[in-house]
Design goal:
Elements: H1 6-9, H2 19-39, E1 44-46, H3 57-69, E2 75-77, H4 86-95, H5 99-103, H6 111-117, E3 126-129, E4 135-141, E5 148-152, H7 163-169, E6 174-178, H8 200-213, E7 219-224, H9 227-237, E8 241-247, H10 261-273, H11 277-287, H12 301-304, H13 311-326, H14 330-335, E9 340-344, H15 353-362, E10 366-370, H16 384-396, H17 408-412
Parallel strand pairs: 1-2, 5-6, 5-7, 7-8, 8-9, 9-10
Antiparallel strand pairs: 3-4, 4-6
Helix pairs in contact: 2-4, 2-6, 8-9, 10-13, 11-13
Length: 419
């Protein structure tokens, strides 16, 4: 990420850190990886950070105390990464365990570091019921009573991936989000809830249930990646969506727009994983190898591998994200009559930018914006230019501000610089 913020960059007791700093950074890193730690089958094994002192019993005691205070399963520290699974390597990279820094913090109190881990967005989860009773882990940042913005992130990804947007917008707005149904335990050490429904309709209704749970009558909705179809479906079904912004959307448009190799490959993987647990187990054995991390950004890899943390998670992810990727969005695009900002980049090789172009053409009130640089993951980074675009759009469509009228160039995009 260009400026991921503390929740994504804090080094868990990095080399040379003062005792209190070491504990705060490790507590924040454990909080950031908690969903993955709780999802992995069996004890989680990690290796110390590169170039740090050998692990000691004193450092282990501090780690055990901190994981216990955070309500997390115990973590086993091994000498190196040999034999570790991809998810374990990703957790270890985020924690950056340093024995000397933690041993120096053996007598330091834990209350302050634990509070610091939850101090900023996304904060602590609130468990809210979906309309079918599925417990949803939801998050809120910013003062109640402000105009509400609901961030709909990518299917299966922990809240940490969307947290930069919560930090960026919560100074002005009440920013809400949640994690995909049935892919996250409602509490640490709890099991996954039943998967009661996985279609696009069920998943998009979770968006409205989040508004209900936080007592919000109307919200601007921001859909990123696979969150864009969910945002569309909710807007087509309910007048409570004041406006939409669709960022690097992964839209199914039949033969009307091309797909990237990545979109085709992931759709095939999800279709197989969703067939049943035996198929998911076979894929899991392949995907858990550390070589699967080779193309993932190290700062967010611990979020991206979450849906692949266990065979059952992968099976559910196949059903949930498979439904998002295969449901035809064209009827939804035709049905939505709300102000819409559509954002993409010619450098996105994950979700084909022409999908966003076609989506903007089908929407009645869309403005299409091209970011000259940025791949798919940078849509989650909340960098300066995306934040400026988002805030400009939100101001224009919040009561008290005159809405902008999209020009032809806004609506259909400036194709200069397309590769």
């Amino acid at each position: 990420m260009s400026e991921p913020g503390a929740a994504a960059t804090g080094r868990g007791g990095g080399p040379g850190a003062p005792p209190d700093t070491a504990l705060r950074e490790l507590a924040t890193a454990l909080r950031d990886t908690s969903s993955l730690i709780c999802s992995l089958p069996g004890p989680v094994r990690v290796a110390p950070g590169p170039g740090t002192a050998p692990w000691t019993a004193a450092a282990g005691d501090v780690l055990d105390r901190l994981t216990g205070r955070l309500g997390l399963p115990g973590i086993e520290v091994v000498p190196d990464t040999a034999g570790l699974w991809a998810a374990e390597v990703a957790v270890g990279r985020r924690l950056v365990l340093d024995a000397s820094a933690l041993a120096g913090a053996a007598d330091a109190p834990l209350a302050g570091p634990v509070r610091a881990a939850y101090a900023g967005p996304p904060g602590e989860p609130v468990v809210l019921p979906a309309y079918d009773g599925t417990p949803l882990r939801a998050y809120a940042a910013g003062e109640p009573g402000r105009p509400a913005v609901l961030v709909v992130g990518a299917c299966g990804m922990p809240v940490g991936l969307a947290a930069p947007w919560l930090r960026a917008l919560s100074g002005t707005y009440r920013v809400l989000t949640w994690e995909s149904r049935a892919l996250f335990a409602p509490r640490a050490k709890a099991g996954l809830p039943p998967l009661l429904g996985y279609g696009l309709a069920e998943q998009s209704s979770d968006l409205l249930a989040i508004l209900d749970g936080f007592g919000v009558a109307e919200a601007h909705v921001m859909g990123v990646c696979g969150g864009a179809p969910l945002a569309l479906a909710a807007a087509a079904a309910s007048p409570r969506i004041a406006s939409l912004s669709l960022w690097h959307g992964d839209f199914e448009l039949g033969g009307d727009a091309p797909k990237t190799d990545h979109q085709r490959d992931v759709a095939a993987l999800l279709a197989k994983a969703g067939q049943g647990l035996p198929q998911a187990e076979g894929l899991y054995r392949l995907l858990r190898h550390p070589r699967s991390l080779a193309k993932l950004r190290p700062d967010v890899a611990h979020h991206l591998v979450h849906p692949y943390a266990s065979p059952e998670l992968l099976r559910r992810y196949g059903l949930l994200n498979g439904a998002i990727m295969t449901t035809d969005c064209r009827p939804l695009l035709a049905a939505v009559d709300r102000p819409v900002l559509v954002v993409t980049s010619p450098e996105d090789t994950t979700a084909h930018p022409d999908g966003s172009v076609h989506a903007a053409r089908l929407l009645r009130r869309a403005a299409l914006r091209w970011l000259p640089h940025g791949d798919h993951l940078t849509a989650f980074d909340a960098g300066p230019e995306p934040v400026r675009l988002a805030e400009e759009f939100l101001r224009a469509h919040t009561p008290g501000h005159a809405p902008d009228r999209p020009t032809a160039r806004d609506r259909f995009g400036d194709r200069k610089g397309r590769s």
